[in-house]
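Sequence in, structure out.
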Amino acid sequence: MYTKPTSKVVKERREYNTWVANETLEDYSLRYAPRSFRKWSEFLVANTALGGTSFLALEAIGGSLLLSYGFANSFWAILLVGGIIFLSGIPIAYYAAKYNIDIDLLTRGAGFGYIGSTITSLIYASFTFIFFALEAAIMAQALQLYFHLPLALGYILCSVIIIPIVFYGITLINQLQLWTQPIWLGLMITPFLFIINKEPDAISNWVNFAGNSPSGAAFHPILFGAAATVSFSLIAQIGEQVDYLRFLPEKQEHNRVQWWLAVILAGPGWIFFGTAKQLGGAFLASLAINHGITATHAKEPIQMYLTGFADVFADPRVVLSVATLFVLVSQIKINVTNAYAGSLAWSNFFSRLTHSHPGRVVWLIFNVSISLMLMEFGVFETLDIVLGLYSNVAIAWIGAVVADLVINKPLGISPSYIEFKRAYLYNFNPVGFGSMVIASIISIVAFVGCLGAYAQAYAPFLAMGIAFVLSPIIAIATKGKYYIARQNVYRSQKIDPRTLISCSICEQKYEPADTAYCPVYDGAICSLCCSLDARCHDGCKTNDDDIGSLTLAIARTVFSKKFSPQLGVRLVRFIGIFLLLLGIAAVVFGLVYYHSILKSPTFPINSSADFLGVLLELYAPLSVLIGMGTWLLVLSEESRELAEAELDRQNLQLQQEIEERQRVEEAMQLLTSELEHRVEDRTKELSEAIGSLKQTQVQLIQTEKMSSLGQLVAGVAHEINNPVNFIYGNLVHVGTYTQDLLNLIGLYRKYYPHPEPEIHQEEEAIDLEFLMEDLPNILSSLKVGAERIQKIVISLRNFSRMDEANLKPVNIHDGIDSTLMILQARLKARPDRPAINVIKEYGDLPEIECYAGQLNQVFMNILSNAIDAIEEKLLDLSPMEVSQSVSTIKIQTEIDRNCYAKITIADNAKGIPPEVQKRLFDPFFTTKPVGKGTGMGLSISFQVVKEIHNGILKCNSEMGKGTEFIIEIPIDQKAVKA
């Protein structure tokens, strides 16, 4: 269904005037009512809608029907038509409230198409200004009676006072209806209560009232049908009701009952009031005639209620004042609704014809002006004729809409939803539009008497029945092809209905229900901008619905090769427009002749033929003028189309040139961007290479340094180890020999208690007693020292691990203990601080596969940093605080994640600031003074753990509490690599 246009239109931001941009004035007159604007309760919206039922034309219609057709015919006609109007209004009110659209948008999506519903907009607009004129005329009659104001001035006054109220739309109308509703209801009901009480025979007089009916008060089928024709004109009132119901809040579980009550009572339910008021008007008309009012004035509502209030108040001045007040309140309440609905209808009508929208307020004034002209022409005097003719077209429209909603949609012939946007609709849909046209033509032909008396009387029933039946027939015949011109992208994507989409033309944001995708502008477009656009020529749709293509096809078929295609198109257009205008002129002349001559009781019958001849003589030259005007119109339209085609061609060339330049510019930008990316990539590679080179260089230096240091440590340990072993090994013998000598001295003393004086002197000189006591102690101390030296040598050998340079299983605890042994001097107490306590909580670890020497260096770096941090913390304390402080380094080992050894080294120093933690493992980064650190210790440790041992080294630190380094390395390196 969708063909992508060959060219796009350059976007130009659309600016709306203040009246259109201000939705408080505009009331979303051409579009869906969004959630943000529907802020009123169900009660307030329903009350506003029901306020429109106050119009006294209902009483006037009821009185006119009673006087013309008698009680039985008027009574049953009002009841039957009321039932039909109620039933037909239910689906219309439901769909309008569900999709929050007015009657015009509903008609578009219910089988009429985008342009097809223009006719119904005109019908609906005519309904509003006809009834506005009727209601204002009734109000002017009341002003004339009370203030003796001439009718001509009264018409102007009654029209002008409505404009300021309707100017602010539903916002002000809500308040008006809310405050005047009790007054109106009270004044309307009171007269009937008093009449029934004071004049009980009034009802029987009404029931037996014959009026001008040839059948008297009895029922007559033809007169009944004629009465129903006039009452049927009220069927379009449902349009005014849904103009308010579209502002109902969304139906949800909590407001389901209130929502349905508002839809039924304020939608089709208006006819309950309407039927009661028509019957009440008929009743009051009979009462007025019984009170001596002439038949001409008895059907005027002011006279009806003057008669009614006469039974309420004794003072005639009070009666006149109250009756006038009631008429003014009633007519203001209805005419704000008529004017409001008319402004919406004209906005929809002219926006499609002219592709412009000056604002709802402009069409408000336009609608009121038309009504004023009708009043000045005396439309009130020909009420039954005007409404009888109007009802044939209006009911055909409503019948076609209802058939689509209750038959075509449930059967799946038409879409289940209401699509109202121009972007997705065909211009004409034969289902609704065709049904309405055919039904209207047949019913009007019947209405003027061409099909007999019964067909004339029941013309509206024909209109309703034919339209209702034809709609599903045509829908089935066309297979529902003309409902949707192309797929709704936003609907198919099931976008959240609360999402706001920005219009690419006016740059305002709207809900998806009010937005379409426009391939011509290549972006989202709101329904109003879409409706007003005159440059796209519906390029988003197929050519099946294009009137120009259809005209060309007809011209080729009819004229074949007799004329050129261009001349053939001209002739087809000329014939079509000429016949249409001739038909309209013929209908106008025919209606004038029918109602003014044939139906006139004062015009002589023998002169009707002469008058018909005069009309035909006028019609002949008028036809010539119509033909000349039509030909000029066809030529001017062709010139306009040629000019537009030339502009489109030049626009296309300009777009192609712009697109070509854009492509070149994009190619240049792409090339520039590519070059920049290449430079960035090359620079990044060089930076990484330099960084890697520096890192490798540092690693080599550190590796060489550690290798030299390891060799030195290993050499020193080896050289010390030999003499220490010699000394330690001979200490045993020395101890034995010494003990033997001491034992020998003991024997000498035992057997030679009195040695020579010289020997005695020597004993005293060398303090033999002390020597014999202290010598074993000295030998024991020598043994302890030798063992200590052996342990230090073993620690140095374990730390250097020169004999374990390859990957092999080792005891991690030995490496930690060796590191602590080397650092023992720094851990001991000093004069300026107490000892640093080392808490070891070793888990049951198996031997770990690792490079022991490199891993011991990691332990050395972390433990050294912990000691530095503790000493730095103590520098900030007083001597008293230092002596009382407890410095600890806690070392924990455990098995983590089943296959990893986890070593945690924590201190209780000051902690590391967050900004320093981020750079802790960066090469050459240090916080120590110059000469005390290279910034490579933790960087190398990180690489040893992560890259060499496939492990993890991380730091957790909190200021004021200390720092924790966690080392996790696999127990089995081969398994991890595999």
